[in-house]
Specification:
522 residues, alpha/beta, Rossmann fold, UDP-N-acetylmuramoyl-L-alanine:D-glutamate ligase, ten-stranded mixed sheet, seven-stranded parallel sheet, 21 helices, elongated
């Protein structure tokens, strides 16, 4: 989905109103209704369905979205508490009409008209009692929040201690174009942005404040959106639904592909297990795993859905160079292959990866040690006949390009695009705001996921999921974007249902089935 500036979004709204006759009040109604649906979903998943929803509104369009959402949430049975930063009589335009509808629904609204009033509220209220919705400031604000808005932001952040904070369109206090967060800024766990995602949401400066991002379709015609140019796309649930094909009622496992996972070594059976389990959870028809003989029984017991093959091992317990010899020219019977998790840096591993790059012609995922083993000769990736996807974290990317990790992190957008062109591969640069790059196409960014996923094995889970999706013959770029989105969304689901602290990769793999159910009919 195209990422746009605040100015472009205002132009789109104006075109929808002027050229297609969509009233501004209707756009706001759609935005607020969509916001209410997202809040309801979050409440159900995170255990807050019996708790109040506390909404803080400004006098602008974001406040109007809040008024609509409060009305719909009230109709859903939630107890809603609404605070307005300013005087009710100063609310104008479409927001004023929805404020009137809010009052007609007998929903109480408290006007907070001085900074001291916010201080008093902060002193008398506690956080963690429910979901908090921030609709204080919108995309037209420049510079730090002041006065009533600053107090409202402090109140939102206080209420959000121990409970989820949902920002409307963009966290209040953040610059919608640059992501800069000066002085008081809302720290959101989830940002629900309207129409199209705003550029500031995807900037590195914004990561600490935005959380995950959901986009509400407010019905801006496709003909209008097509007129807007964008250099970046945000991966959204709306996109993911399009990329994930619906399964036919009359089908069998052969219709959904066969993936091969090449992974593991003595001491690293867990990497192979996580990757194979994730592949099995991808919806693929068949999973095979090639692992060193010393760990084959361990992997087979842990992943009963996989056909585990014992490969010849080196003296250190890693796969030998000739471990693929048993398949010979039959490698192309696999619809996708993953190699790398837990492979180790043994020299035989380098030979194994290089032989695969030469022999295989279908989608091939290079992850973890497969990338490290190629760091001295990355040109082999470009020369391969396979449809290669590389999944480096910043350290692995630095080794592949021969640069410092600090340079990778300082220029993530440019580095991801450079790697895609240099390697001739679809490139996933992992991290907060995972990027998917391919030459001559807009850069894609994913904002699902959370800090709880900063633990061992998460990359193995992503790689297995990706390989399994590729084996289902989903186009490579689409499958890659779908994988990073689902992986992060599964991590978010675990965080909402349990916590970020204590989350492990196995939890995320187990959550894959749940996030698939969010996208397709059961």
């Amino acid at each position: 989905m195209k990422v746009v500036s605040a100015e472009q979004m205002r132009q789109l709204d104006a075109l929808a109103i002027a050229d297609f006759g969509v009233p501004g009040e209707e756009l706001m109604e759609r935005a607020g209704r969509g916001l209410a649906v997202v809040v309801d979903d979050l409440a159900r998943v995170s255990g807050f369905s019996n708790s109040p929803v506390r909404l803080v509104a400004g006098r602008g369009n974001n406040g109007g979205d809040v008024f609509v959402a409060a009305r719909h949430l009230h109709d859903m049975g939630y107890r809603v508490d609404v605070w307005l930063a300013g005087e009710r009589r100063r609310v104008t335009g479409a927001a004023a009409k929805h404020l009137e509808l809010l009052r007609n629904a007998s929903i109480a609204l408290e006007e907070i008209t001085t900074p001291q009033d916010w201080d008093d509220l902060i002193a008398t209220h506690e956080g963690g009692e429910g979901i908090v919705v921030d609709g204080v400031l919108g995309t037209g604000i420049r510079g730090p929040a002041r006065g009533l808005a600053a107090g409202a932001i402090q109140f939102v952040n206080m209420l959000g201690e121990g409970g989820p904070v949902v920002a409307v369109d963009i966290p209040s206090g953040m610059d919608a174009n640059t992501g800069a967060a000066e002085a008081d800024t809302v720290r959101a766990d989830l940002t629900v942005t309207m129409g199209l995602p705003k550029r500031g949401l995807v900037e590195p400066l914004a990561i600490e404040f935005v959380g995950s991002v959901e986009v509400v379709d407010i019905g801006i015609p496709e003909e209008v959106i097509a007129k807007v140019e964008s250099e970046m796309d945000l991966i959204t649930a709306l996109d993911a639904r399009d990329w994930l094909p619906r399964r036919k009622r009359i089908s069998h496992k052969g219709d959904y592909g066969h993936v091969l996972v090449i992974a593991g070594a003595t001491g690293y059976a867990g990497a192979a297990i996580l990757a194979a389990r994730a592949a099995a959870r991808s919806g693929v028809g068949l999973v095979s795993a090639l692992v060193p003989e010393p760990i084959a029984a361990i992997v087979a017991a842990a992943v009963p859905e996989a056909m585990v093959h014992a490969g010849r091992a080196t003296s250190s317990g890693s796969l030998a160079t000739d471990a693929l010899a048993q398949w010979g020219r039959a490698l192309d019977t696999f619809d996708a292959i993953l190699i790398g998790p837990g492979l180790t840096m043994h020299a035989d591993g380098a030979g194994l990866v290089k032989s695969l790059l030469k022999a295989y012609r279908k989608p091939l995922v290079l992850d973890a040690d497969a990338l490290n083993l190629l760091a001295t000769d990355p040109a082999l990736i470009r020369a391969s006949a396979a449809q290669v996807v590389v999944t480096p974290h910043p350290g692995e990317m630095a080794r592949l390009l021969g640069i410092a990790v600090e340079e990778v992190q300082a220029q993530r957008f440019a580095i991801a695009q450079r790697a895609a062109k240099q390697l001739g591969a679809v490139t996933v640069l992992k991290g907060a705001g995972t990027l998917v790059a391919v030459a001559d196409r807009p850069l894609s960014i994913n904002l699902t996921g959370n800090p709880g996923m900063a633990s061992g094995g998460m990359g193995d889970a992503l790689a297995g999921l990706l390989a399994g999706l590729l084996a289902q013959r989903i186009p490579v770029f689409d499958a890659t974007r779908l994988a990073v989105y689902l992986h992060g969304r599964a991590g978010d689901r675990v965080a909402w249902t349990t916590s970020q602290s204590g989350m492990v990769a196995s939890d995320v793999v187990d959550a894959f089935a749940h996030v698939f159910s969010d996208l397709v009919p059961r």
